[in-house]
Amino acid sequence: MTAAPERAACFLCGAPSEYRELGAPERRHYLCSAAGCGEYSITRRAQSLIEILYRAKVRRQELRQVVAAAAAGQLVEIDFNPGTNAWETNLVEANGSHGQAS
Length: 102
Prior knowledge:
single chain; 102 residues; alpha+beta; seven-stranded mixed beta sheet
């Protein structure tokens, strides 16, 4: 992670947020200030595809609901698997264990 978070609009909802760049695969870890959003990490590949394919913001709304539904101490990881052509969202517990969200 970078030494200090960057300030930017939340990728999913546009509210003020902070993010940090993570290493490979290239990810951003967001901490959104909106009550209806939350904390998540998203790969650059997923961000690009969402911007290209979901201009109507439908997918962003769906993903925001997944992030908001995560329990305290859970982080939602968002990615797109080109091998299966499927979106992947995983819950990561504070202790590092993974569970499938959708």
